[in-house]
């Protein structure tokens, strides 16, 4: 997926969070968005995903050169973020089944393979509510990275992961990100070491 932003700006009440965002996210490239806490990384990620409408400017999503209807953009992307909750009432096995009703996994992946990938043996009948924060984060990342979508958004991907979990995340990216468009928002270098393009949101704070 390719995304084009033209003079995009976002304000909450009277506060302008982002201004003059002229940005093209090229298909197949991997981008890191950096910036201090509260600078607008998540806001930009939500705009890129189509979940948040800019206060000013234009955004276009293209797949294979065709502009996607804004209502349909969600079908083409996977998004893992601290503010996107899992359904806590489901067991792990149910969560995988439920996810598949909306998004297919990549070719060759099924629930069993994902369960193995998660490295959470014996937890398939455990309620997501009873997962530790690190287990929940693994599940969010696996669902995002293993879904068959052309655009992957990861906000603070190593939140709640220990060193083993961080290594697991990096392996997951290496195996499954493939030639998809990837955007990672984070302040932690290890989260986006694989991204060839990096920029700070601070450039979009100037009036
Ligand atoms: N729904 C909202 N209503 C009002 N203000 C908001 C809303 N969402 C975000 N903000 C404000 O927008 C600014 C940018 O927030 P955002 O979450 O995009 O920053 P961030 O760079 O992702 O921060 P962090 O690194 O702490 O996650 C903050 O000042 C925040 O308080």
Automatic annotation (TrEMBL):
Question: Would the keyword Nucleotide-binding turn up in this protein's UniProt record?
Answer: yes
* Record-level Gene Ontology MF annotations: ATP binding; ATP hydrolysis activity
Listed SUPFAM superfamilies:
P-loop containing nucleoside triphosphate hydrolases
Return the Pfam families for the record: ABC_tran
CDD domains named in the record: ABC_DR_subfamily_A
Q: Which SMART domains match?
A: AAA
Q: Does the keyword Transport apply?
A: yes
Q: Domain of life of the organism in this record?
A: Bacteria
State the UniProt keywords alphabetically: ATP-binding, Nucleotide-binding, Transport
Q: Membrane-spanning regions, if any?
A: none
User: PROSITE patterns, alphabetically?
Assistant: ABC_TRANSPORTER_1, ABC_TRANSPORTER_2
Q: Which InterPro entries match?
A: AAA+_ATPase, ABC_transporter-like_ATP-bd, ABC_transporter-like_CS, ABC_Transporter_VariousFunc, P-loop_NTPase
Q: Which residues form the ABC transporter domain?
A: 3-207
| Xref: Gene3D superfamilies | P-loop containing nucleotide triphosphate hydrolases (3.40.50.300)
Q: What is this protein called?
A: ABC transporter ATP-binding protein
């Amino acid at each position: 997926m390719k995304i084009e932003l033209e003079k995009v700006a976002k304000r909450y009440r009277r506060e302008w969070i982002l201004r003059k965002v002229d940005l093209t996210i090229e298909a197949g490239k991997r981008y890191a968005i950096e910036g201090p806490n509260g600078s607008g990384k998540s806001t930009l990620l939500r705009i890129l995903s189509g979940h948040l409408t800019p206060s000013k400017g234009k955004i276009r999503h293209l797949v294979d050169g065709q502009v996607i209807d804004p209502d349909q953009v969600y079908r083409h992307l996977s998004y893992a973020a601290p503010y996107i909750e899992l359904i806590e009432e489901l067991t792990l096995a149910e969560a995988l089944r439920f996810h598949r009703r909306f998004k297919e996994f990549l070719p060759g992946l099924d629930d069993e393979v994902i369960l193995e990938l998660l490295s959470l043996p014996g937890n398939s009948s455990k309620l997501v509510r009873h997962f530790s924060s690190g287990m929940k984060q693994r599940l969010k990342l696996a669902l995002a990275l293993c879904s068959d979508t052309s655009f992957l958004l990861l906000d603070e991907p190593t939140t709640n992961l220990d060193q083993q979990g961080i290594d697991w995340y990096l392996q997951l990216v290496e195996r499954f990100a493939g030639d998809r468009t990837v955007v990672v928002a984070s302040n932690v270098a290890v989260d986006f070491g694989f991204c060839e393009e990096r920029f700070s949101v601070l450039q979009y704070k100037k009036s």
